[in-house]
Write a structure and sequence with these properties.
The structure holds two protein chains of two kinds. Chain A contains three helices and eight strands. By secondary structure, chain A is of the alpha/beta class. Chain A has a single domain, classed as Beta Polymerase, domain 2 (2-Layer Sandwich), CATH 3.30.460. Chain A has a four-stranded mixed β-sheet with strand order 3-6-5-4. The longest helix of chain A is centred in the C-terminal third of the chain and has 12 residues. Helices cover 48% and strands 13% of the residues of chain B. By secondary structure, chain B is α+β, with helices and mostly antiparallel strands. The longest helix of chain B has 30 residues. The radius of gyration of chain B is 21 Å and the shape is globular. Classes of the chains: A alpha/beta, B alpha+beta. At the A-B interface, strand 2, strand 4, strand 5 and helix 3 of A face helix 1, helix 8, strand 6, strand 7 and strand 8 of B.
Chain lengths: 173, 369
């Protein structure tokens, strides 16, 4: 059963759950303006899945491939492209390489189904992503801020969160 | 019959048994815990965002501050992530020095963690002093190579900052000669102590399936009977050349976690002995001379993980081709190991709750980030 590579995973997922796997498209990562490089394109090598069906894909990993261990959920803010990418990382404790699932959601309406009902270990990861990036995990039993205090406004890890002052970048006075 | 009702109390954030500024919102029915919510964030400094402003090398000393007990292990994970991203090779000798430091860290962490745990049970200070005595000796060694006892900042991309000092090996060998007596003494004090057995056996049980579902790592996962150790599962550095066992528990209670930690100290000592034997034949110096420290990695992302004494520490880095990380994410073991605390404490007494928290072995610098 182990030894599923990222490429195998894409094929297997596509066969078992048609329409879940999405074509990976390159993201523009804006270089710092002073350097004058051409904007670099960022292509991910991992499996990109449909955000609405991430739970199906994760359950397939757990129940069919044996990847029962959800190690990490991490968000990356691609401001230039206007999307958040959520990265899920799975292991098989019996052996085999780690696998990652990626999900892209628009920055204006970041909604992802929650994995917490199936993986209680996703609880704090999702609360952290909600707290720092403002991603709504539908179905999470207790989606509250985890680091910042409850009255805090804004999401401090977003790229347009100001390092000084209290306004988002691009917002008028 | 007297009318009773449940009571909600806060333990912490300023409470000595919570190992830092950590709050437990506990609902108790008499002496019994019926619900527990961990509340934290008091030490939150948005480490990950500060790291996006720093250059890659500037983050190296900053990783020390995550789990301030195990600075060397944090350095290792971060150095590995950047090396993977840039493609820097590490000389053999540097790898051996790294493993040596990381395994010493494991011994000092477990010595301290067990001491604090016994402290929580009420065996005030004796066991802790024993653990701290050994820890001090190891910290002296760290000081001799890195100049600092706790915030070592010793690893660099492609190796370590300085080679071992001339008197390092003799001092390490002295330390190893005395080590088995210390570990045996610690184990005897714990195993044969009736009070400790009563306080730890059958307390805070985390069954195997729950441990996996909760994604706990390190001694907590292995105490629950899952033989998952990253040094084995995905050997990094030179761990594939070293011979060691992965101890596992059977029940998943506090006692199993204690036994796993004691055995891990023994295994670390075994690893250090093999490193000492193989180090003289290792090729290369303490650092790759071609490795640039002000790195500018190509565009891409990378995830690197190591088995720190507390569990899996991973760094997820996204590079946009500049000299500062576009995204820097820490997958901290203490943070995740706190998730099942509520389930582990439910149904036990308030006094057991403190012991269960101690058996997880958390450091708030890493939980809050």
């Amino acid at each position: 059963m182990p030894n599923v590579s990222a490429d195998d995973l894409r094929v297997r997922l596509g066969r078992a759950l048609p329409g879940v796997v999405q074509e990976v498209y390159p993201l523009k990562v804006a270089p710092p303006p002073a350097q004058g490089h051409a904007p670099a394109a960022f292509v991910t090598g991992d499996t990109l899945v449909d955000a609405a069906r991430v739970v199906d894909a994760a359950l397939y990993l757990r129940d069919v491939l044996g990847y029962a261990y959800l190690s990490d959920i991490c968000v990356v803010d691609y401001l230039t492209d206007g999307i958040f990418e959520v990265v899920y990382r799975f292991y098989n404790v019996e052996g085999g390489p780690s696998l990652a699932l990626k999900v892209r959601v628009p920055r204006e309406n970041p909604v992802v189904p929650s994995l917490t009902p199936d993986w209680p270990g996703a609880n704090f990861h999702e609360r952290e992503a909600f707290d720092l990036y403002g991603i709504t995990f539908v179905g999470h039993p207790y989606l509250h801020r985890i680091y910042m205090w409850d009255e805090f406004e804004g999401f401090p890890m977003r790229k347009d969160f100001p390092k000084q002052g209290d306004k988002y970048i691009g917002e008028d006075e | 019959m007297l009318k009773t009702e449940e009571l909600q109390i806060n333990i912490g954030p300023q409470h000595p048994s919570t190992h830092g500024v950590f709050r437990m919102l506990v609902t108790v029915d008499g002496e019994t815990v019926t619900d527990l919510k961990p509340v934290f964030g008091y030490l939150h400094r948005n480490h990950e965002q500060i790291a996006e402003v720093n250059t890659y090398l500037q983050n190296m000393p900053y990783t020390d501050r995550l789990d301030y007990f195990n600075a060397m292990a944090n350095n290792h994970a971060y150095a590995m992530a950047v090396e993977k991203l840039v493609g820097i090779e590490v000389p053999e000798r540097a790898e051996y020095i790294r493993v040596l430091m990381v395994e010493l860290t494991r011994i000092l962490n477990h010595a301290g963690a067990l001491g604090f745990l016994i402290n929580d049970m009420g065996a005030w200070q004796t066991q802790l002093a024993f653990g701290m005595r050994e820890r001090e000796k190891i910290l002296d060694l760290f000081e001799s190579v890195s100049g600092a006892r706790l915030m070592c900042n010793y690893f660099r991309f492609g190796g370590v900052a300085r080679d071992l000092t001339a008197d390092f090996m003799p001092r390490l060998k002295d330390l190893l000669v005395a080590m088995p007596a210390f570990i045996d003494e610690m184990e005897r004090l714990l195993r044969e102590n009736e009070i400790l057995l009563q306080r730890s056996e059958g307390i805070g049980i985390l069954p195997k399936d729950l441990a996996l579902a909760y994604s706990v790592t390190g001694p907590v996962l292995r105490g629950s009977g899952v033989a998952y150790d990253i040094r084995r599962a995905e050997p990094y550095s030179i761990y594939d050349r070293l011979d060691f066992d992965v101890p596992v528990g059977s029940v998943g209670d506090v006692y199993d976690r204690i036994l796993v930690r004691i055995e891990e100290m023994r295994q670390s000592k075994r690893i250090i002995e093999q490193v000492i034997a193989q180090l003289p034949d290792a090729q290369g110096g303490h650092i790759n001379p071609k490795a640039r420290q002000n790195v500018r990695p190509p565009v891409g992302d990378v995830y690197a993980r190591v088995e720190t004494p507390k569990g899996e520490l991973g760094f997820y880095l996204v590079s946009d081709g500049s000299s500062r990380p576009y995204r820097y994410k820490v997958r901290a073991p203490s943070f995740i190991n706190l998730t099942p605390l509520g389930d582990m404490c439910r149904g036990y007494k308030v006094a057991d709750m403190v012991v269960i928290l101690g058996s997880i072995d958390i450091v708030m610098g890493e939980v809050d980030r």
